[in-house]
Every structure is written in structure tokens, then in C-alpha cells.
């Protein structure tokens, strides 16, 4: 079975490279064949990736959360999945190259450095709720990352319009209003995913971990992020904020996510498995 898992790793890396190439070809060259195949290729890749995660978890008796490189694999999957959700909601299909390229790098790096180890010392790793909890968290953070990517694209397009630079990037990006809609929807998806994570965490984690603590660094960091994004979405609605300010908020928000999760991972107690 380890051979099968290795074949999956190689196949997934190749599929992500092909999908990134199709999205890049469609964006930069406006290739009709690439435009027609890119979403289908991504859905097929995600389906195979999901099957791999299930088979790996069943075979090794633990979800892929026991090392940084295992988490990178799930993060790559989550980022690509978050993009597909946003693409489905908005019906806009020409911004995927940037997100899929990052997802591909994460999956490839994970495929090279992650190890397939049977069993683990923590009994909680055998619980299916942990896999759901971790995957939902990564989907939420991936949606926040996607929102920041759209924020950067908004500012990029805004500056091109301001400087009257009408190049390939300008021609292939959707208009500012649509990009703003995508970054807001991404942030909303992330907020609701994190809401689910926090709800499950507060109900299930105290029962699953003997050393559970409400003062755990990752719990506190997650709550701060949840409050920041919830507050940001609320302020945008109440104060009717839009445009460049909204785009800047998503970028600053994700920088905060990156910093807080960096500190939280280093200081967390029961949340660490590696």
C-alpha cells in the first residue's frame, strides 16, 4: 500500500502542475482549449486528492496532521477547494492561476518531504472528528489567503487603471467590482468555516484531550482571527466600505493570520502533534 501512496503523490504533483499550466495558459495566452479544460482538470485533481487523503488516513491510521509537510498537503488541497467554491459562487473563472499555482507548490513540496508513517502515539488522531476539525480550519484559512490574493489583484488592477497600463493582466482580470465581490465572498467563506471550527472545538476538544485548556495559544489566536474577520465584515456592511480600503483590509487581515498562527503554533500545548 505504501507504493500506492507514493504513486498518488507523484500523480497528484503532475496533475497540479498540468492544472496550473492550463490556468496560466488560459489567463496569459487566452487559449480556448485551456479555458475549456482548466476547471474540469481542477475538479478531477481535487477528487483524486480527496480519495488519496481518505486512503492515506485509513491505511496509516491517522489523518495528515502529524507533521508540517502533511499539513502542507491538506493546505494545498484546501486552497484549491476554496478557490473552486468561490469560482462556483461567482461564476468567474479567470483568476485561478494565482491560487492554483500556490496550491501546486504546497502539494509538490509535501510530496517530496512528507513521510508515510504507520500509527501514532496520540489516540485522538484515530478520531474522524479531528480530520474534520483540521480540514475545516485549513479551508477557512485558505479562504482568507484567497481573499488576500484577490485583494492584491484588486490593488494591481486599480494601479494599472490609474496609470493607464492596459496590458495582458488588465485585459484578462475581471473588473474591480467583480474582484471586490470575490474577495468579500472568500472572506465570508473563511469566516463561516472558522465559526464551524470553533464550535466543534469548544464542544469536542475538552472531551478529546486530557490536557485541554481554554487558554491554549492556538485557541486564543483562532478566536482573535475570527473576531477580526467578523468585525471587518460587519464594519464593511455598516460603514458601507468598498474599493481599495476593502482590498487593503483583506491583505492586512491575512498578515495578521500569518503572524498569529506562527506564534500560536510555536506556543500551543495540546494542539501540537509533531
Secondary structure category: mainly alpha
Number of strands: 0
CA(first)-CA(last) distance: 24 Å
Q: What pattern of helices and strands is seen along the backbone? A: HHHHHHHHH
Structural domain count: 2
Tertiary shape = flat
| Rg for CA atoms | 19 Å
Low-confidence stretches: none
Query: Largest sheet, if any?
Result: none
The average pLDDT is 84
Distinct helical segment count: 9
> In what range is the share of β-strand residues?
under 5%
What is the helix content? Answer: over 70%
Description:
InterPro entries: Cyt_c_assembly (IPR002541), YpjD/HemX (IPR052372). By secondary structure, the protein is mainly α. The chain has two domains: 1-120; 122-274, no CATH class. It has nine helices and no strands. It has helices at residues 2-29, 32-60, 68-90, 96-113, 128-162, 168-172, 176-208, 217-239, 244-267. The radius of gyration is 19 Å and the shape is flat. The mean pLDDT is 84.
Amino acid at each position: 500500500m505504501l507504493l500506492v501512496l507514493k504513486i498518488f503523490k507523484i500523480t497528484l504533483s503532475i496533475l497540479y502542475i498540468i492544472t496550473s499550466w492550463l490556468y496560466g495558459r488560459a489567463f496569459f495566452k487566452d487559449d480556448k482549449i485551456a479555458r475549456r479544460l482548466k476547471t474540469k482538470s481542477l475538479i478531477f485533481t481535487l477528487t483524486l486528492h480527496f480519495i488519496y487523503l481518505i486512503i492515506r488516513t485509513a491505511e496509516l491510521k491517522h489523518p495528515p496532521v502529524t507533521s508540517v509537510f502533511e499539513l502542507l498537503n491538506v493546505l494545498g488541497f484546501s486552497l484549491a477547494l476554496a478557490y473552486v467554491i468561490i469560482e462556483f459562487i461567482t461564476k468567474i473563472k479567470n483568476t485561478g492561476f494565482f491560487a492554483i499555482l500556490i496550491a501546486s507548490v504546497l502539494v509538490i513540496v509535501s510530496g517530496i518531504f512528507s513521510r508515510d508513517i504507520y500509527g501514532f502515539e496520540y489516540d485522538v488522531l484515530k478520531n474522524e472528528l479531528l480530520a474534520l476539525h483540521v480540514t475545516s480550519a485549513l479551508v477557512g484559512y485558505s479562504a482568507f489567503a484567497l481573499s488576500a490574493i484577490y485583494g492584491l489583484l484588486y490593488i494591481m488592477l486599480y494601479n494599472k487603471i490609474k496609470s493607464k497600463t492596459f496590458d495582458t493582466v488588465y485585459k484578462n482580470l475581471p473588473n474591480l467590482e467583480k474582484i471586490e465581490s470575490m474577495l468579500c465572498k472568500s472572506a465570508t467563506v473563511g469566516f463561516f468555516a472558522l465559526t464551524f471550527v470553533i464550535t466543534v472545538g469548544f464542544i469536542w476538544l475538552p472531551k478529546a484531550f486530557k490536557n485541554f485548556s481554554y487558554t491554549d495559544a492556538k485557541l486564543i489566536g483562532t478566536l482573535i482571527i475570527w473576531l477580526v474577520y467578523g468585525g471587518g465584515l460587519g464594519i464593511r456592511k455598516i460603514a458601507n466600505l468598498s474599493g481599495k480600503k476593502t482590498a487593503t483590509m483583506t491583505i492586512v487581515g491575512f498578515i495578521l493570520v500569518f503572524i498569529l498562527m506562527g506564534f500560536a503554533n510555536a506556543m500551543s500545548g495540546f494542539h501540537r502533534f509533531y
